[in-house]
Amino acid sequence: MSEKERTVNISLRISESAYRALQEDAKKLNISLNTIANQIFRGYAEYDRHLNRFAMLKITSPTFMQILNAIPDDAAFEAGRGSGTQITPGVILSIEGELSASSISGFLKRMGTYSGLFDYSEIVHGGKVSVTLSHNLGPKWSLCLAGYGEAMYKVAGVQVKSTRLLDSVTFQFTT
């Protein structure tokens, strides 16, 4: 949460079993119940509620990797490209209100924070932006992410160069 962001006090009623589960996780993570509840609310507000309109799925990483590993390399790249061309621009527009290099980066950052599909990092130096998506889902996921990112930036009219490794993809462009 941003240090400048204002907080509000609310009172909620939740089921006892949900309360116990939240207490248990807060204790395991050594954070307050308030912090864990705020993380859940922010995840919903900033990510889940937007993607629910597009029939978001939640599956385990091993299942996802099995699906990816069952398809050819070119199909993994094309699946990412198709989503980045046809589906995700609409998602970004519904969240960010525009399709630009910064809105794509904002969406990818949000996705990295809440989806567990990759870690997002960004470096801006001398008018050049480098966005890296690091993951542990294997080389086919790198292929899929490469197609995904290249397609989104292209739809936004941004010329991007991608570098794909086994566990990451980096997109570089000029601001």
What percent of the residues sit in helical stretches (DSSP H or I)?
Answer: 55-70%
Biggest beta sheet attributes: 4 strands, antiparallel
N-to-C SSE series?
HHHHHEEHEE
Count, helices: 6
Q: Class of the largest domain, according to the CATH hierarchy? A: Alpha Beta
Could you name the CATH homologous superfamily of the largest domain?
Trafficking protein particle complex subunit 3
Describe the structure.
With 175 residues, this protein is α+β, with helices and mostly antiparallel strands. It folds into two domains: 16-52; 57-174, 2-Layer Sandwich (Muramoyl-pentapeptide Carboxypeptidase, domain 2), CATH 3.30.1380.20. Helix content is 56%, strand content 15%. The chain has six helices and four strands; from the N terminus they run H-H-H-H-H-E-E-H-E-E. It has a four-stranded antiparallel β-sheet with strand order 1-2-4-3, covered by helices on one side. A hairpin with a 2-residue loop joins strand 1 and strand 2 (128-134). Helix 4 (73-96) crosses helix 5 (101-115) and helix 4 crosses helix 6. The radius of gyration is 18 Å and the shape is globular. The model has no long low-confidence stretch (mean pLDDT 91).
